[in-house]
Amino acid sequence: MSVIALNPKSEAPVNATRETAEARALRETSPGQWFPYAAPQPRARDTRENAFSFRGISRKFGDKTVLDNIDLDVPAGQFIAVIGKSGCGKSTLLRLLTGLDKPTSGTLTVNKGTAGENRTRIMFQEPRLLPWAKIAKNVEVGLTGIAKGAEAREKSLAILNEVGLADRAEEWPSVLSGGQRQRVALARALVAHPYILALDEPLGALDALTRIEMQQLLERIWLQQTFTAVLVTHDVAEAVALADRVIVIDHGRIALDLDIPLERPRRHGSPELARLEGQILDTLFGEKAG
Amino acid sequence: MKSTVQSILRNGTGWLLPALIVLAWEIAARTGLISPNVMAAPSAVAEAFWRLLLSGELVRNIGVSTARALSGFVIGGSIGLIFGLANGLSGLSRNLTDTTLQMVRNIPHLALIPLVILWFGIDEEAKLFLVALGVFFPIYVNTLLGIQSVDPQLVEMGRVYGMSRTTLFFRVILPGALPAIFVGLRYALGIMWLTLIVAETIAASSGLGYMAMQAREFLLIDVVVLSILIYALLGKLADSFARLLERLTLQWHPAFQTA
Ligand SMILES: Nc1ncnc2c1ncn2[C@@H]1O[C@H](COP(=O)(O)OP(=O)(O)OP(=O)(O)O)[C@@H](O)[C@H]1O
Ligand SMILES: [Mg+2]
After folding, report:
1. Contact A98 B156 (CB under 8 A)
2. Which chain residues have CB less than 5 Å from ligand 2, an ion?
3. What is the DSSP letter of A267?
4. How many domains does chain B have?
5. Residues 6+ apart with CB under 8 A from A25
6. Confidence at residue A290, expressed as pLDDT on a 0 to 100 scale
7. What are phi and psi of B109, to 5 degrees?
8. Quick check: is B93 in a domain?
9. What is the mean pLDDT of chain B?
């Protein structure tokens, strides 16, 4: 298997905002050369339009209010992490966003992006691959209604290459490891170039090393493509390492909305990350920890 | 080279015991240990086989029985499959028919033989009806079970990715239900032969069961034993065919992955 360079740390970005070495390479090389399906378009995230907004969204199950009057605007291209205790309604938030569930009250506006179709994709905690379809066919599920036949196959092989699994295209999912299956699920979510990618603890079941590898892969692909990422996670360190912005949900409300203005690539365990992590944990468990 | 020898040895060991039994049986029959009007010697059975093969009787009866078995199977199996799919996919259909079907299922279908003879006499319909009824339930129950046990998370995934109802059915639901459907299929094949033997022994004017009954009247023990052996062989053949089909369609299943 070819070794893929995860998170190349070569050149530091010139200006501290968003333009990494990779993004520049992407802009300057021809599309086919670098990444065949991410043509360097004007970057959506610079225009600062909203990818989606929640206005007074509530969701009740019976008498139980899970989400209570949530207001949230997420600019296109932002990487936002959602943190909260178990059962606080994080998955419910993603299900609302992806249309799997409807709010009890409030309005939800989801933009469609330039492609026109609604390309909101969700990646679940489990890979949810079809056991009876080869890996490449599983990735092609992500192109349902978008591409067929040879075109679909070509695209799925390209994205499999991107996640480092090009040589496994003709295998059954049952022979892959947990981390590899989750990478296939990521490829499936990304193959149609989503406008919004919702991730519901996709790395929760992975071991620590595979987890870090997946985080770097996710960051790299997010930097290449221009989607808006909404990552639900239990792991505060993961949230501050990856996201532009972290929100904490507590008792159905947004208890903290924190920008993470650190440049990328970020180093695990740096003092700023530790400080932000502490701030989030304080919100979650009260001030006594600080 | 070595591996082929090994595989012959491995496959061969399973046949060792049957071969010994046949040998002992032959010896016992020849020495008069087993009386010829209790059990025919293997050589006598082989002789009967040859005799009936030459007269064309054997081929004709096997043909008649197989045709009955298969047409009954196709009728009962497809109705079972249709009801299983419909009740698995639609709650309305399930509410309407499942209770009734479960009630009918508790009647042993062979108990209907007297009634069936009254309805159809000993014509073809009688046999087809019984075989179809016997085959219906294992296919129905297992298809329903298979569809109900399809992973709802996969179905949700299919919906999120915008699969239409037909795509969802053919890409997610049917493949997920297939292992259970195969269990039903193999079970149904067993019931198919069983029903046919009983029906043909009681009410028929041709077929293997009829041949065995005729032979009994004329005390041709060798032909009776031959009929039983041929039934066993046909049953085994049907099962091997189902297994082959299963292996071909369920390649993805860890249980069918070789190496
Ligand atoms: N379909 C439903 N019917 C009733 N209650 C529900 C339903 N879905 C979720 N809930 C309730 O809503 C609350 C929030 O659930 P949700 O799955 O969003 O939590 P979560 O933050 O994702 O938790 P975790 O981190 O453990 O995944 C829970 O108390 C749960 O019991
Ligand atoms: Mg959850």
Report:
1. no
2. A 91
3. P
4. 1
5. A34
6. 41
7. -65, -25
8. yes
9. 89
For residue A28, name the pLDDT band (cuts at 50, 70, 90).
very low
Output the pLDDT for position B80. Answer: 96
Q: What is the ipTM of this complex?
A: 0.79
Residue A201 tokens read as 């603890």
For B220-237, how does the pLDDT look when each residue is reduced to its tens digit (9 = 90+)? 888 998 998 898 889 889
- Residue B258 pLDDT > 80: no
Q: Which residue of B has its CA nearest to A124?
A: B157
> Residue B232 sits in which domain range?
41-256
Tell me the ligand closest to A86's alpha carbon: 1
Stronger pLDDT, A104 or A118, i.e. the higher one: A104
Distance of CA B71 to the CA centre of its chain: 12
Ligand 1 lined by A196 (C-beta under 6 Å): no
- Residue A226: Cβ-neighbour burial (10 angstroms; 0-12, 13-18, 19+): buried
Give the span between the Cα atoms of B129 and B133, in whole angstroms. Answer: 6
B167 touches chain A (CB under 8 A): yes
What is the pLDDT averaged over residues B198-209? Answer: 85
Answer for the pair A265, A99: CB distance below 8 angstroms, yes or no: no
Q: Is B244 exposed, middle or buried (0-12, 13-18, 19+ CB in 10 A)?
A: exposed
The partner residue sitting opposite B161, judged by closest CB among A133, A142, A175, is A142
8 Å CB contact of B161 and A98: no
Question: With pLDDT > 70 as the criterion, what percentage of chain A qualifies?
Answer: 80
Whether residue B24 lies inside any domain: the answer is: no
pTM score: 0.79
The per-residue pLDDT for range B108-150, each reduced to its tens digit, is 888 888 888 888 887 888 899 999 999 999 999 999 999 999 9
Residue B76 sits at the vertex; the CA angle it makes with B186 and B227, to the nearest 5 degrees, is 60
Helix count and strand count (H, E) for chain B: 11, 0
Choose between A47 and A98: higher pLDDT: A98
What CATH number does the domain containing B102 carry? 1.10.3720.10
- Flag if B161 and A141 touch (Cβ within 8 Å): yes
Q: Which atom belonging to ligand 1 lies closest to the Cα atom of A62? A: 4
Which residue's CA is the closest to the ligand 1 atom numbered 25?
A: A86
Q: Which domains does chain A have, with CATH numbers?
A: 4-119+193-289 (3.40.50.300), 132-191 (no CATH)
Predicted local distance difference test score (pLDDT) of residue B1: 55
Structure tokens at B253: 């299943």
d(CA A229, CA A196): 6
Q: Is residue A121 within 6 Å of ligand 1 at its C-beta?
A: no
CB distance from B15 to chain A under 8 Å? no
| Chain B neighbors of A121, CB-CB under 8 A | 160-161
Chain B CB contacts of A133 under 8 Å are: 171, 252
pLDDT band at A14 (very low <50, low <70, confident <90, very high): very low
Residue B257 to residue A131, Cβ atoms within 8 A: no
